[in-house]
Write a structure and sequence with these properties.
Chain A: Belongs to the ku80 family. Chain A: Its EC number is 3.6.4.12. Chain A: This is ATP-dependent DNA helicase 2 subunit KU80. The complex is a heterodimer. By secondary structure, chain A is of the alpha/beta class. In chain A, the strands form 4 sheets. In chain A, strands 7-8-15-18-17-16-14 form a 7-stranded mixed β-barrel. In chain A, strands 3-2-1-4-5-6 form a 6-stranded mixed sheet, sandwiched between helices. A two-stranded antiparallel sheet of chain A has the order 10-11. In chain A, strand 7 (217-224) and strand 8 (230-237) form a beta hairpin. Chain A starts with 6 loop residues before the first strand and ends with a helix. Chain B contains 22 helices and 23 strands. Classes of the chains: A alpha/beta, B alpha+beta. Strand 12 of chain A pairs antiparallel with strand 11 of chain B, so a sheet runs across the interface.
Chain lengths: 711, 624
């Protein structure tokens, strides 16, 4: 048998009181089979129903009894039909006896494997355990359960019991229920069994482990309290994200007739020189480069090995500190668990003593860990005690990684007490909030916690596997909507809301929320992200914002200036320049203004438009300084000047000079290439000055080069 | 982008990889930053006490913090550009040739540019060179029309004209301890110079440049912002009320405050928090804690050291034809290939409407220490879009803190929808400023699929031992002894990262010697050797292990047995070979891996790796 291969017998109660939850049981059991089909193809599964009208099992034939227990399938390797079979469980009509069913399941495992496969044989019992089990022929029910549990342990079997008790079940026979619970607890005490109770269908989906991952230690060795005291520990992962499956890319190239086509796609990498894109560099000629600012520093692997940080494998205590010193939000990654080396009684005791002492004193331990030799880094983390209530489970520690100095960004935020009074809740509002926080309660006393992480399945994965099965039958099926049970994970519970209707209404009334009218519409669009299937009430906000966002893209810009008109070009220009919705408005404004000015000069009749043209130029000049575009203005002014010289419009040049119009200088805008003295001389001296020929020529050159460069 | 492609990384499915988006901050804008450091004699004469009974000047404090932030920046945000500019200097160095302003730079770098190894190195030595090369001098004095502050603003503005204001975030950070720069002047000249300076600042702000002031001050000599800087910064109302001078009794406090204020907050995203249908508030989220990793690898051509471009091609495994990026994915299931389009897959992941949806509240005790998968995200309310968001948030926050409850919400982002715990954090401040900001932390909760039940493997039907009261008492005494009183998270630098960048810096500057990095994470051996601790340790040891700690330690009933057996077997087999002869004649390669391992196991050498590695290890061990 392969190393991680397991054998599971599903033992399912299909009696009358179970009918209401059977649809969920069908789902969770078929998911279990589906995952086995994908991830553990060689696992073996058998399944037993009880509470059926019929009886079909080997024990009843061999020794009699065991009525209403039906072996639907003997233990064998998982196959496709099983998924369908589990999706259509027959409904039984007899209150079932779970103990009989357990014995039948055990019998199947024993017959198939005998003493082999310790620890890889599992029974999964799903029942509500509200019907009494039969009295044994001799001794008490307790004795009988004891015997069975001992046998189970001896055979190396594990059992997961999921006890599903919905609200209506709780009103039935309390005495029987209590008795059964006591009997079930014998299993968890005497054997490797786990009993979990669930009160709603959503938790049921999370209560049964659908994927069998055998935990692997990430460290085995000393936990060094000091050089004098070392405790042997094993470290495992406690949480690790089950990722969305990585699907392969599909190739359609193979001819449809090719029955053996894999349709897989290989990814090939070629490294090419940046200088010569046709030259392929073989992989062994590559060298790793690390970025340091703008530089890339090449280091060969051998070199890197020699200089890199290389700590010794070890787990060392740095010290203890108050639990309150470690904020919950510093936990950085997934969580590990420290357990004493199995069988090492002293190590178990030492960890137990530390855990209990720390819990009592509300302390945590800070440790430095290097899990493997050569891992190249260290982690510093916090150990928090996990003290076990059960006799058969050792005390342990959870380990969370803490951030290093480099990982923390100390952003500063305003104190709430310094906020303006309009942002501070008044007494009435605070009261409404208090009530809400208290009453919208997901962990009511005396009842089961709603959506505990330990029993809440991942709705995305759940949905994916169901869709996968659907698609295998109907390749064109669309993604079905999320069902009621899974929606309870993503949306508030309708019943909880309606129970607290008045508190919610009060809360709504207490707080006034309104959209900020001053906000530019365009920014509102940026933050929008479209959630799917937006048909809920909560989407009003979105739709609203959306409509406005579309609006802002340009359909309603009637009130905004888009071109420079004849009546008030300066005002139009300034408004366009101040538009911030799109950077192109600035260049458009400058271009339009140049055209406008040019038109004014060109079409002037005896200087009648000079004053208006000057106004435009002044505005353009101001705008170009403000927007750091001096070249735009200077080029244009040179162009205009030249044009006037050629077209006999020298009077305009003189007009400008007399009004002090000149190029934008370096002092005004650092981008400008025009020193102050040259700017002034540009207009004042249209004719070369004999004393200043050299500088003039240079200025001329500069202007020409600007002019040419600008074209 | 394609340059950074590493085959190992690409094998992960791109659109299915939630990590990439989560850990990468939004870098829509880069930051252009000019440090404007007052170098007037007053910055050198004002001191504050440091730890080692010395004193440090405000000037030292400022450059110290800048040096530190350059280091952080080159690691975390090396794309941001930075310029360092002193004003009130004797010498001048700037493009505008304005007096009293000195732009510090190193070769192969523009004045405003990304930080380089050389910049960091030379800036570290600025203090010893300052007086000789740059010099300090009051820039605004009676009888002169020079205005060094005006010049400084101008130079900084000119530096910052690089890049469009739309894609770059432009800032000036002004370090000074002079609250009244024109205090020495009188009459028209004073009015005139103040006016032009304010106008200069306003022009810069109009261009989208933010001016921030880091006012240094002493406890007995408060920085009076209203004398001049209120106008320069354009502070009004609430902003003014929140504006506080940096004051510290100690240098360390001041440094701490300064460091915190130099950071610019970067929002990760804006979120809508749906309280109920039709009632939503607006939150901004921030990544306050994210693991910093050594930067990505760029492959170079070892002949030229020039970067290589990576070209990825998809090849059909059946026909070897090269194909375009395929759009369909498949999963083998029930002996057939079930096909999915990318759209279908993203539809599967879309399980929720709305961004963050309140489901209810639970007591904090329901949030277990193992309910964690990745770093938390910080949420702070914003009224920018929804007026009233802050008020509602503050009310919920106060109730949650007071009632010790957290909110459970569903975070329906498209790549990775998840349940989150919203834990309200009250503000925590110390004399050196805010330590924990007020707000809520989004803690990403695991699903049942993500939680492993390791404890069950270690259960024992015959019950496992638990500590006795005496053992617990001895453990308590030990815990009390080894107490890290002032422990704060993140007090350690990451030694691997420090080493990584120190090596890079040395290589980048062609230095021969590799720097030594102190590993701060090692336990305090000296402290552990104190008699009180040793005594507590011995008592605890005695209580748990009895007199025979050493023996017990050596003897464990678990896995040690088989490995010892393996070793014995190896020893037996080992003697069957003439190893020296095999090695001399190059015949080691003819042995199987199993055979080679006999040698390694017999000599307690690691037995892992490929055959070549094993052989070379054996040869090394033989000294051949």
């Amino acid at each position: 048998m392969a190393r991680n291969k397991e054998a599971v017998v599903l033992v399912i109660d299909v009696g009358p009181s179970m009918h209401s939850v059977l649809p969920e049981i069908e789902k969770v059991c078929s998911l279990l089979i589906q995952k086995k089909l994908i991830f553990s193809r060689y696992d073996e599964v058998g399944f037993v129903l009880f509470g059926t009208a019929d009886t079909k099992n080997e024990l009843t034939e061999e020794v009699g009894g065991y009525e209403h227990v039906t072996v639907l399938r003997n233990i064998k390797v998982v196959d496709e039909d099983l998924v369908d079979a589990l999706q259509n469980l027959p409904r039984g009509n007899i209150p079932g006896d779970f103990l009989d069913a357990i014995v039948v399941g055990m019998d199947m495992l024993i017959k198939k494997f005998g003493q082999t496969n310790k620890g890889k044989k599992r029974l999964c019992l799903i029942t509500n355990a509200i019907s009494p089990i039969k009295d044994p022929f001799e001794g008490t029910k307790g004795d009988q359960v004891n015997t069975i549990a001992t046998q189970m342990a001896a055979q190396g079997m594990k059992m997961d019991c999921v006890i599903v008790r919905m609200k209506q079940d709780l009103e039935t026979n309390m005495r029987v229920m209590k008795e059964n619970d006591v009997l079930l607890s014998v299993f968890s005490n005497k054997s490797s069994s786990k009993v979990v109770y669930v009160e709603n269908p959503t938790s049921l989906l999370g209560a049964l482990r659908t994927r069998n991952i055998s935990p692997v230690t990430i460290y085995r060795g000393d936990f060094e309290i000091s050089s004098q005291l070392k405790i042997k520990v094993w470290v495992y992962k406690k949480t690790s994200e089950e990722k969305f499956p990585t699907l392969k890319k599909y190739s359609e190239k193979a001819p449809p007739t090719d029955k053996f086509a894999t349709h897989e796609i290989k990814v090939d990498y070629e490294y090419k020189s940046i200088e010569d894109p046709n030259k392929v560099v073989p992989p062994e000629q590559r060298i790793k480069g690390f970025r340091y600012g703008p530089q890339v520093v090449p280091i060969s692997s051998a070199e890197w090995e020699a200089v890199k940080f290389n700590p010794e494998k070890s787990v060392k205590l740095l010290g203890f500190t108050d639990a309150s010193n470690i904020m919950r939000h510093y936990y950085l990654k997934d969580v590990n668990i420290f357990i004493a080396e199995p069988g090492n009684k002293m190590a178990i005791l030492a960890l137990s003593a530390l855990a209990r002492a720390m819990k009592e004193m509300n302390k945590v331990a800070i440790v430095r860990c290097v899990w493997r030799q050569g891992q190249g880094n260290v982690v510093v983390g916090v150990l928090t005690p996990s003290v076990s209530d059960e006799d058969n489970t050792p005390d342990s520690f959870y380990f969370n990684i803490l951030p290093f100095a480099e990982d923390v960004r100390e952003f500063q935020f305003p104190s709430f007490s310094n906020l303006p009074s309009s942002m501070q809740p008044n007494e009435k509002q605070q009261e409404a909030a208090d009530k809400l926080v208290q009453m919208l309660d997901l962990a009511p006393t005396g009842k089961q916690e709603i959506l505990p992480p330990d029993f809440t399945t991942n709705p995305v994965l759940e949905r994916y596997y169901r869709y996968l099965d659907l698609k295998s039958k109907h390749p064109d099926a669309a993604v079905p909507p999320l069902d009621e049970t899974l929606r309870k994970i993503t949306e508030p519970d309708v019943e909880l809301l309606s129970r607290n209707k008045s508190i919610i209404e009060e809360f709504r009334r207490s707080f006034e929320l309104k959209e900020n009218p001053k906000l530019k519409k365009s920014t509102r669009r940026i933050m929008k992200e479209r959630p799917s299937g937006s048909d809920g009430e909560g989407e009003e906000f979105d739709k609203d914002a959306d409509a406005k966002a579309i609006d802002s893209i340009g359909y309603s810009s009637k009130d905004k200036v888009e071109k420079i008109g004849d009546i008030n070009p300066v005002k139009d220009f300034e408004e366009m320049m101040s538009r911030r919705d799109n950077p192109r408005w600035i260049s458009k404004a400058i271009q339009d203004m140049k055209n406008k000015t040019f038109d004014l000069v060109e079409n002037s009749c005896e200087g009648d438009t000079y004053d208006k043209a000057l106004e435009c130029l002044v505005a353009l000049r101001r705008g170009c300084i403000l927007e750091q575009e001096p070249k735009q203005f200077n080029d244009f002014l040179c162009h205009l000047y030249k044009f006037c010289q050629e077209k006999d419009l020298r009077s305009f040049c003189q007009y400008l000079a007399s009004h002090g119009m000149n190029l934008i200088t370096k002092t005004e805008a650092p981008d400008s290439e025009i020193p102050e003295h040259e700017a002034r001389s540009f207009m004042v001296k249209p004719e070369p000055d004999s004393q200043n020929v050299e500088s003039e020529a240079k200025a001329e050159d500069d202007i020409m080069s600007i002019f040419l460069g600008g074209k | 982008m394609s340059m950074d492609l590493d085959p190992d990384e690409v094998f992960r499915d791109d659109e299915d990889d939630p990590e990439s988006e989560f850990y990468k901050e939004r870098d829509a804008t880069k930051e252009l930053l000019v440090y404007l450091v007052d170098a007037s004699p007053k910055m050198f004469s004002t001191t504050c006490p440091t730890d080692d009974e010395k004193t440090a000047t405000h000037f030292q404090l400022s450059i110290n913090c800048i040096a530190q932030s350059l280091r952080t920046q080159i690691i975390n945000r090396s794309y941001d550009e930075v310029a360092i500019c002193f004003f009130n200097t004797r010498e001048k160095k700037n493009l505008q040739d304005l007096s009293g302003v000195y732009v510090f730079n190193v070769p192969e770098r523009e004045d405003l540019d990304r930080p380089t190894a050389r910049l960091i190195k030379e800036f570290d030595r600025i203090e010893e060179r300052f007086d000789k090369e740059i010099g300090s001098k009051y820039g605004i004095v009676p009888g002169s029309r020079e205005n060094s502050l005006y010049n400084a603003l101008w130079v900084a503005q000119a530096l910052l004209r690089k890049g469009s204001a739309k894609i770059a975030d432009k800032r000036m950070l002004l370090f000074t301890n002079e609250d009244d720069p024109f205090g020495n002047l009188k009459g028209v000249i004073k009015v005139d110079m103040m006016r032009t300076t304010l106008q200069r600042a306003k022009d810069a702000q109009d261009l989208g440049i933010a001016i921030e002031l880091l006012p240094l001050s002493r406890p007995d000599d408060e920085f009076n912002v209203s004398l001049f800087y209120t106008d320069l910064l354009g502070l009004e109302g609430d902003d003014l009320a929140q504006f506080k001078a940096l004051v510290g009794e100690r240098f360390e406090d001041l440094k701490d405050q300064l460091r915190k204020r130099m950071f610019k907050k970067r929002r990760v995203r804006r979120l809508r928090f749906v309280i109920f249908n039709g009632l939503s508030i607006e939150l901004n989220t921030y990544a306050l804690i994210r693991p910093t990793n050594p930067g990505t690898i760029t492959w170079l051509d070892s002949m030229t050291n020039l970067p290589l471009t990576t070209e990825r091609s998809f090849i059909c495994a059946d026909t070897a034809a090269i194909i375009q990026e395929p759009v369909k994915r498949f999963q083998s299931y029930k002996n057939e290939n079930v096909m999915f389009s990318v759209d279908e897959l993203s539809e599967v992941k879309r399980v929720s409407t709305g961004h963050l949806r309140l489901l209810g509240f639970k007591p904090l005790s329901c949030l277990k220490d193992y309910h964690n998968l990745k770093p938390a995200t910080f949420a702070f309310p914003s009224d920018e879009e929804m007026i009233g968001s802050t008020c509602l948030f503050v009310a919920l926050h106060r109730s949650m803190v007071r009632l010790k409850r957290f909110a459970v919400a569903f975070y329906g982002n498209s790549s990775h929808p998840q349940l989150v715990a919203l834990v309200a954090q009250d503000e925590i401040t110390t004399p050196s400023g805010q330590v924990e900001p007020p707000g809520m932390h989004l803690i990403y909760l695991p699903y049942s699929d993500d939680i492993r039940h390791v404890e069950e493997l270690h259960t024992d039907p015959n019950s496992v031992p638990h500590a006795t009261d005496d053992q617990i008492k001895k453990a308590s005494a030990l815990v009390r002894r080894i107490d890290l009183k002032d422990f704060s998270v993140c007090q350690f630098a990451n030694p691997a990262l420090q080493r990584h960048y120190a090596v890079l810096q040395a290589l980048a500057l062609d230095e021969d010697e590799m720097p030594e990095i102190k590993d701060e994470t090692l336990p305090d051996e000296e402290g552990m050797a104190r008699p009180g601790i040793v005594k507590a340790l011995e008592e605890f040891k005695l209580s748990v292990y009895g007199e025979n700690y050493e023996e017990d330690d050596a003897k464990t009933d678990g896995k040690a047995e088989p490995s010892r057996k393996r070793k014995a077997n190896a020893m037996k087999e080992y003697s069957n070979y003439d190893w020296s002869d095999l090695a001399d004649n190059g015949k080691l390669k003819d042995l199987t891996v199993v055979e080679l391992k006999y040698y390694l196991a017999a000599h307690n050498i690691p037995v892992t790796g490929k055959k070549e590695a094993l052989i070379s290890r054996i040869l090394t061990h033989m000294g051949k």
